[in-house]
Structures are given as structure tokens and as C-alpha cells.
Amino acid sequence: xxxxxxHEVSGLGxxxxxxxxxxxxxxxxxxxxxxxxxxxxGGEKDVAQIRRARKIHEIATIEQANEIKAQLxxxxxxxxxxxxxxxRLFGSVxxxxxxxxxxxxxxxxxxxxxxxxxxxxxxLGSHQVSVRLHPEVAAKLGVEVVAA
Length: 148
Prior knowledge:
Belongs to the bacterial ribosomal protein bL9 family. By secondary structure, the protein is an alpha+beta fold. The protein is built from four helices and nine strands, in the order E-E-H-E-H-H-E-E-H-E-E-E-E. 30% of the residues lie in helices and 32% in strands. Strands 4-9-8-6 form a four-stranded mixed β-sheet.
């Protein structure tokens, strides 16, 4: 099935790309979650608009990505969350929480979709998080989760 991506999907493409995927993957995962729309001749007009929006938000060069990486790796991120007696959190820390904490700590603004968690953060303490800035550049960031 031919689809137009509306968001970046790792391993598949970036927003505005027209790709061929298996019917079930498109019907059951990509389209319902809003990551893609079905390709039509009329939808081809939307591709230009999606690409313009992507250019505004994307990091254009590797040098620019490396500058942001240096800023991120120099930022100390502390995140205060509610937790129980044993240090387990009520819920978990989401990529949106981490992106907001980076901004409040004085770091650069990061899109929540670029924050990659290895596994869900459900305990207090130090955790490593990866931020994919560019297809070739990723920043490792230490996040300190403390009780609120």
C-alpha cells in the first residue's frame, strides 16, 4: 500500500515521504496513530505542505546537530516526580516529560518524538536517555529522577 508519512517513523522515513508498506502495517498501525495518510492523487498536494513544515522543525546540518548535542550533554536534567516508599514511581517518565525538563533546565528545545528511552523509566535514580538529533547524530543525556 502506498502511504504519505505525516511524522518521522524510524526505519521507514521522514514526514512528507511517500513509501510502500504492507497493507496491514498501514491499516492497523500507521494510519490509526496518525503517522501516515493513504496516498491519493489529491494527497500528493499535501506532500509539499508537510515537507515545508518539516524544514522548519528539522535540524538541517550535522554541524548544527553537533552544536545541540554539546549543549544537551552539558545540561543537568533533574525531574521531580511522585513516588512510593520503595522508590517506584506512580506511572512512568515519558519522553514529553524529559523534553519539558530539558527546556526548564536551560537546554535547547527538543521535540518529544526525538527522545528515545531504552526501557520505561519507573524508578528513582539516574537514567541514560538518547536524543536523536539527526540521522547520524545522537546525544546521550543523563536524567536524574527524584521524589517530589
